[in-house]
Model the fold of this input.
Amino acid sequence: MRIPLDGRKGAVIIMTGSLVIATGAGFGMYAAFSGGTTKASSTSPLLGPTSMPSASPVAAANEDNDGGSCTIGRSGDNVQITLAGDGADASTCQQFGQDLAKNLGGFWQAETQNLSLSLSCVMDVPNAGTATVMDSGSQFYGQQVCQDLQAGGAVEDTTAEGGIVQGQQSASAAAAAAESQSAAAAAQQSQDAADYSAAQNAIANLASDVQGMNGDVSGTSSDITGADNDLKAEQHDATQAGSGDCGDVDTVGGDADTVSGDEDTVGGDEDTAAADISSVRNDIAQLQQDDQALQADNVAPPSITASAITSAQQAVKSAISTMNADIDTVAGYVTKAYELANSLATGSCAGMGPGSAPAPPTHLS
Done:
């Protein structure tokens, strides 16, 4: 197609999708479709004549093109036309849209420029101004418009093109940076929420494990009471063995073994308490780690974090002290039980004693 130019002053920014429209403010206009080229009516007072002016340039060629601008688009199509030049305003676009509707059909209305389209070219049009051609997709129609403008006498303005491309690149980079910052902020906010939730869970786990540890430690007291009762039973049986009856001596030895079994039970309690203490310590370490993560992000941790850690540490210290005292207590019972049984295994009953007492459980630390 050819885009003829007349002597009217103005400029057009052409944004095209499936339909390409090239015109100046007062240019002759052609509408290019995929199926061919349809020339607009020459009767429109706004579109002007459809023939090229005389070969000699006119004085208006060097006048400033500093008028207004307006943008219209065809409803339902990816087509935009921005008029820029003397007298280009809303009423101009309204009249222009009516002329377009008569010649091309469709409904044309005022729109905001779609700056996401890509630049095809910038042309200095003799006697008219500047035409900036924008297109989307493959640039097929946009480049065709540029070629026809150039064939009609327009000169490509590479300086203006560079400025537009640079502006688009800067805008794209700024948008990408803003999107990246927004994504980073959202990710950090999500991480902060996750860290805070983790700290709350750690506090709950810590409280639960401390409660379980305290329950297991306090439960050992019943086993200590049982060992004490078994020692007293042995002492009662020992009073019956004074007659030299070896059967009674053997009974006392069995009583000593029972007290030793009580010590084994306390040893099992110790193993349970040791596992509880390990869990509590792990919970404390996890909560401290979550607390550090929140502080690193300048996020206040749950208000009870510090007191929960201190309370748990004191509970561990108390549990260790209680368990070690219980171990010493039952070990003392075993020592007494074995000493008593061995003291009765004399004379004809020699060798019937239980022998050396077993080693007591080791202390917790």
About this structure: DSSP finds five helices and ten strands in the chain. Helices lie at 90-104, 140-151, 158-240, 246-296, 305-344.
